[in-house]
Amino acid sequence: MKHRTLLVYLVAFAAFLGPFSQTIYVPIIPEVTRELHTTPFLVNFSISIYTVFLALMQMVYGPLTDSLGRRKVMLTGLLIYLGATIGCYFSETIEFLLIFRSLQAVGIAAGSVVAVTVIGDLFEGKDRIQPMGTFQMMVSLGPVVGPVAGGFLSGSFDFHMIFIALLCVGFLVLSGNFVYLKETKPATQKKQNFKFTDFIHILKNRIGFSVIGLGFIQYYALYNFLVFLPGIMSDRYALSVEQKGLVFLPLSLGIVVGSFIGGKLRNFDERKVVVYSALLNVVSLLFFILVSNVSLVMLILSISLFGLFLGMSLPVQTALLTHEFQSNRATAIGAYNFFRYLGMSVGPLLGSFLFHLGSYNLVYGFVDFVLFAFTLLMGNQLLMKQRSFR
Q1: pTM flag (> 0.85)
Q2: Domains observed in the chain
């Protein structure tokens, strides 16, 4: 198919818009609070409710994409996103902002499901790994670029201009996908009626269980870093807000670089890459526990390594999943994304409970133990069956 590389970037941009839109006005929460005459809690809730709908809609768009096709679901989702973004711009109360932020998430949630499914349709076997790396790089940039763009815009305009920027970017993404995204659903794939048991069959599958479970635990661990790292940097190193923000950059860049490297690992056995990169995540977490109180430089190195090994794993995870589930790959990706978002949500909640029971070491020691135990289980599940897909 022509324009395959361009199409990879177009669908990846649609997926990028999800986390980008989630974090773009994080830097100006006080300004939004003041403009809408509301409380910081409700403004923060507008970010949380966005994440909830982003997660729930993964389970909806997966079966819809398998049933109705990729193009129709992507374009419909982007249209909903654009309409909701216009609603956000005109919102003069927090109630309306909450409604339209929820609808933004309902629309753009289609991006990540359809993007991975389209890449799975366009490429075969190991050839999927590199474009999956491109996709993961784009998605990883979303939460990093969002606050930077939001801070830049808020320096010159009021917070409503953020939604004009999102509208312009969303319109470009919609236009590109409208022109270049043709239906990629295989003609031989019959239309299937969705059954909830499809999710159960995916989770009972050896690869489905391993990849989805690993995604949940890795993102649980990642969000433990996002939530508790600022406390460590304040308590142990007395860093300013600006300095704490800079410390997160190596973690994010590690994920981006790791995704790029992971996309180049097509000559390696995919199951081994997933298992060994997970083991390296275990080692990097242990390294963090040992050095986080010793030196800021060592702390930054440890979180950079965690991000690097996480990024290396992601393209191979999605490549394995899209290969294993040929007839309902979008449903499988929807389940995978849902459990990753679930990990993001559970991480801060359970982590806070563990922190009150003990300390930062208990928070990270617990997730490191869980990740190590699951990696051993996953290794038994994946490596006992040495068939490498091609």
Answers
A1: no
A2: 4-180 (1.20.1250.20), 197-383 (1.20.1250.20)
